[in-house]
Design a protein that fits this description.
116 residues, globular, 11 strands, mainly beta
């Protein structure tokens, strides 16, 4: 499974950050796959933001739940992150990730900077 993040590298404060992960080598509806967004702010550790399961069910990190939405387009084999009301503290490298029964697959990551 290969994953590739795409989206703008610069977002203004208060706007909505939107990123897409394009998946190849496997279907996002394949049983027992969980498709996540994970970020790493500068100088900090990895933070799991949320996921969408093979079934379409969503899971969100409690601290970010009110601002996060993860959706999918099965026809394009993509899943998307939307993070609303961003602040400079949302500046990070954003990764998409696939997990299935102990196996992890990662995108290369994309830098997103929140700045006016």
């Amino acid at each position: 499974v290969q994953l590739q993040e795409s989206g703008p590298g610069l977002v203004k404060p208060s706007q909505t950050l939107s990123l897409t992960c394009t998946v190849s080598g496997g279907s996002i509806t394949t049983n027992y796959y969980y498709w996540s967004w994970i970020r790493q702010p500068p100088g900090k550790g990895l933070e799991w933001m949320g996921a969408i399961a093979y079934s379409g069910r969503n899971y969100y990190s409690s601290p970010l739940k009110s601002r996060t939405s993860i959706s999918r387009d099965t026809s394009k084999n993509q899943f998307t992150l939307q993070l609303s009301s961003v602040t400079p503290e949302d500046t990070a490298v954003y990764y998409c990730n696939a997990y299935q029964r102990g196996a992890n697959y990662w995108g290369r990551g994309t830098q997103v900077t929140v700045s006016s």
